[in-house]
TrEMBL record:
Coiled coil: none annotated. GO terms for molecular function: kinase activity. It comes from the Bacteria. This is Polyphosphate glucokinase. Pfam families: ROK. The lineage of its organism: Bacteria, Bacillati, Actinomycetota, Actinomycetes, Mycobacteriales. Signal peptide: none annotated. SUPFAM superfamilies: Actin-like ATPase domain. The keyword Transferase applies. It comes from Nocardia ignorata.
Length: 252
């Protein structure tokens, strides 16, 4: 048994509900991550049933940390930009807890979870000051960490830049939708980053989301001021951050 122990994290995304036991000393999963297709429509009840199925599959009986692609305040989902609108106003913590037989649950934003994980186990782990993680996927998620402390629910993907929300201009899904080349897309990402860094002045920006796997193709093309480094944890960051949140009592 490790010093910081193990915890269970679940990351709820558009295509999959993914979970695993996390070794909190290393930030590594102790087994291959389990995945259940996200129900369609992804209503709160259907997703809660998938979460219960996943936890049963893992044979995990303890508390659980869970991400949602929503603003989460006191366990309640407050927004639903890229998930079923029925989530807005849902007491997600109570819903998941009930689906899991009344056990302790914490719920947090997906990018906030990824930020916690990268800030503890990724390249940014030894940096102090303000770190900003941005996830580029269907939308753009954001997480601010100041000396290791999460400032939750920052939602920079919805910052309006030149009349357009950042995620409608520069999410990875927009690159695919509009058939943009990496240079074309990198120019849009640079525009977003310049606006963001002029407002918040992070010391470093960590770029996450699936497209960070191809970072050699676009990070060198960025023209903003703040150093941008690729995320390290890739598709486990949400799971690891969710596990950290339940272990560390983080409940935004
Ligand atoms: C949502 C955020 C979420 C991000 C990534 C945005 O559209 O508003 O809450 O973190 O997408 O999933």
């Amino acid at each position: 048994m490790s010093a910081r122990g193990h915890a269970f994290g679940i990351d709820i995304g558009g295509s999959g509900v993914k979970g695993a036991v996390v070794d909190l000393d290393t930030g590594l999963l102790t087994h291959e991550r389990l995945k259940i297709a996200t129900p369609r429509p992804a209503t709160p009840e259907a997703v809660a049933a998938a979460v219960a199925e996943l936890v049963a599959l893992a044979g995990w009986e303890g508390p659980v940390g869970i991400t949602l692609p929503c603003v989460v305040l006191d366990g309640h989902a407050r927004t639903a930009a890229n998930i079923d609108p029925a989530w807005i106003g849902t007491d997600a913590r109570a819903l998941f807890s009930a689906a899991l037989g009344g056990r302790t649950v914490t719920v947090l934003n997906d990018a906030d979870a990824a930020g916690l994980a990268e800030d503890s186990y990724g390249t940014a782990r030894d940096l102090n000051g303000l770190t900003l993680l941005l996830t580029f996927g269907t939308g753009i998620g954001s997480a601010f960490l100041y000396n290791g402390t999460l400032v939750p629910n920052s939602e920079l993907g919805h910052l309006v830049i030149e009349g357009v929300e950042a995620e409608h201009m520069a999410a990875a899904s927009i690159k695919d939708r509009d058939g943009l080349t990496y240079p074309e897309w990198a120019q849009r990402v640079s525009t977003a980053l310049i606006h963001i860094e002029n407002l918040f002045w992070p010391k470093v920006i960590v770029a996450g989301g699936g497209i960070s796997r191809d970072h050699e193709q676009w990070i060198p093309l960025l023209t903003n001021r703040t150093p941008v480094i690729p995320a390290v944890l890739k598709n486990t960051a949400g799971i690891v951050g969710a596990a950290m949140a339940i272990a560390g009592g983080i409940a935004p």
